[in-house]
Amino acid sequence: MASGPQTSKRIFLVDAPRTYSQVFNKLFLAHPDLGHIFHPMICAMYGRERVGLNLKHCEAAEEAGKALSLKTGMTESLEEAAKRMEKYILQIEEQCKIPWIKDHTCCHIRRDIAISVAKSPTYPDLDLRSSHNPTVFSDELFNTFTPVILIRHPILIIRSCYRTQASVFHLEAHGEDFKLMTTLQYSKMWFDAKRGDGQVPIVVDAEDVVHNTEATISLLCSHLGIDANGAQYTWDPAPREEWPDDPIMQGFFVDMLNSSSVKRGKQAVQNALDIDNELDMWKVEFGGDVAAVLKKRVEEEMPVYNFLKGFKVDIKAQ
C-alpha cells in the first residue's frame, strides 16, 4: 500500500484475547499524536469467512458463531476488512498522526496457519522460525508495521477465557476454537517475521502494565518515539447505558467499562501462580476433566510465553 503523508511509523498492538489488551489500549486512547483503529479485522473473524467454519467444535458452538455473525452484522470478507483498515490508516496519516492499530492475532492471522495451529495435537519446535508474513495483510502493508506484542501468563489467559467466554461461545476446553483464542503462537510468528526482517520487536508483559504501569508505559513510549505525557492513567467509567447489549462484548469489556484506572492487587499475581494449585481450584470450579485439559493447554503455551518474555521491555534493566 502506498502511504499518504508519511509519519515515522504505524504501530500495531499485537495481542491475544484476555491479555489485558483492552485496558492497555485504554492507556493510549487519548494520546494526541495517535489515531486509533480498533479491532479492524473482527468483522471478518466472525463473518462469512470465519475460521470457525473449519474448526472442530460442538454444534452449540457453531450455532453461537452463526448467531453472533447475524446479530452484529459481521459479514465482511478478509479482503474487505483489510482494505477498510488501509483506508483508515491513510486518513489518520493525512491528519499527521501515527496510526495505532489494535487487533487480536486470531482475527488477522492467515487462515491456513490459524487452522494448522488450532488442529495440531503437539506444540511446534520453537527453533523452527519463519521470516514470512503470517497475516492476511499484504507483504507491503505488513512491512510498514511496528508491532507492540502484548503477552500474559498462560494461566491467566486460559483461565480468564474459559471463565468469561465458555458459556457464551459454548467453548469446550479441548476444542480447536478454544486453542485458536488462547494461543500465543500467532504472536510469536509476528515476532519471528519482524526479527527476520532485521527489526527488534517490542514485547510487553501484561503483569508489568498492571504492577509497574507508569514506568513500563514511559519506557515503551521511549522505544516507540512517542511522547509519554500523552498516556492517560485515569478515566471515567463508562455509563451503564453506553455498554454494549451483546453479552459476548460485555464479557470481553466489562472490566474496562467498570474501571477508572489500572486495577492491581497487593502483589503481582504472577508471583503466586502455580499450575498445580490452579488445577485444584479448577477442579472445583470447572470439574476434573475440564481442569485437566486446561492444565494441558497451559503447559503447551508456556514455552512460547517464556520465549517472548525473554525479550520484554524491562524497567529493571534500565
From TrEMBL:
The lineage of its organism: Eukaryota, Fungi, Dikarya, Ascomycota, Pezizomycotina. InterPro entries: P-loop_NTPase, Pyrrolopyrazine_biosynth_F. This is P-loop containing nucleoside triphosphate hydrolase protein. It comes from the Eukaryota.
